[in-house]
Amino acid sequence: MTDFKQLREQVPILKVARWLGIDVKGNGATLRGACPFCEDPRTFTITPHKGLWGCFKCGKKGSILDLVMHVKDLKLAEAGKLIEDTFLGPVQSHKKDQYSPRGTDDERLAKVRERLDPEHPGVDAVGFDTDFAREHGIGFSSSGAGKGYVLIPFRDKRGTLLGYIGTQEELWLPREFKPVDTKVVPLKRA
Prior knowledge:
The protein has about 190 residues and is of the alpha+beta class. The protein has 2 domains: about 5-90, DNA Primase, Chain A; about 105-165, no CATH class. It contains 7 helices and 9 strands. Strands 1-2-3-4-5 form a 5-stranded antiparallel beta sheet, covered by helices on one side. Strand 4 (about 50-55) and strand 5 form a beta hairpin.
């Protein structure tokens, strides 16, 4: 189900207007242009910081949802879905507790880890020992979004896997680096 509030908060009205072919100009808080409905050359306004638009001549006004509904001749749910798919994509638009056809974040991250190769020469090239890489989920990715990168897990304070950081080049640490945790294996030193 589309979260209309989320759409209004996350999708900039100027981005939607440009996508719809509406050209507005100005450098103040309110931008002006030709109304896509009544075609008056100066009565259409957009106020980006409020996420609102309106026309003084024809009287139409509203948020990004109303703009898409009027221009594309859609119902509210259809306009919301179109904005969601166009600007947020299916992954970003769903909250973690909602159904996602691509699976949960945890499932996707687990699939990434399954395809990482801790024994790849690239892992050694960036300075990680194979055993350390295997133990901590570090490895070379030969497919997916991280293809061609050594992926290093990024975790929060509780140890929850948030994602991966990728690198292709040798990593260097400052000479004065001293690991606090004995499980941390220093990389090659500068």
